[in-house]
Input
Amino acid sequence: MDRSILQKIGLTEGEIRVYLAMFDLGLTTVGPIMKSANISSSKIYLILDRLAKKGLINYITKNKTSYFQVALPEKLLSYISLKEKELQKEKAELAKLIPQLKQKLKSREEEKGAAVFEDIEGIKTFYLSLLDYMKKGEEYYVFTVSAEEMKRKSIQAFFWGFHLKRERKRVTCKIITNEKFTYSWMKKAYSKFKFLKFKRTNQEIPSNTIIFKSRMAFLNFKGAPVVYVLKNENIAQSYAEFFKSIWGKPIIKN
Output
């Protein structure tokens, strides 16, 4: 029998041993359970109490002696349903807490004027925070990822998933690249995206740079991925004006 599923649903090793042993014992007192499951007297009552609270065993008391019996196996499903309800309740409580935590994070970032997001999970967190920061109808600017990095399938898949979320929020992203491969790939992959616009230039431009409102982000995908976010309205405005000056020039199509 594969016992791992019982561990996955939250039963401890002791609870599993007692629970499975009771299928062979029927209605019984504590002694045979301790012997069959190899559980000490100091732990057996705690384990039986937890299993009873989970609805997995039943017990009665006769002449001051407790008798225990395993419940129907279907009770495992009832236990899972109860855990799901508890998780939904916890999820709802967390949903109320998240805006408060986000406000604390926002206040900290505004105080420091800078933030660092490390590794791929940090990159994902950054992009989610970017979308959260932008409002419907707003736009941000990108000097795009280099061709060498854009050829990586994992990078392509990541940006595809992100832009799907961005489209649903109707936030416009404008991208400038001076890489032929990157432009060709974006043209093919993003052609149906309504709020994603891109151009190719032959000018020297900064790579992996995002300008959004009074913030800028500098991305590095080489080695361990990292994003440096800087809040400086003057610098962000300067980069935005540089971006717009290139954006206004004729597009290079090949």
The chain is about 55% helix and 20% strand. The chain has a mean pLDDT of 87. The radius of gyration is 29 Å.
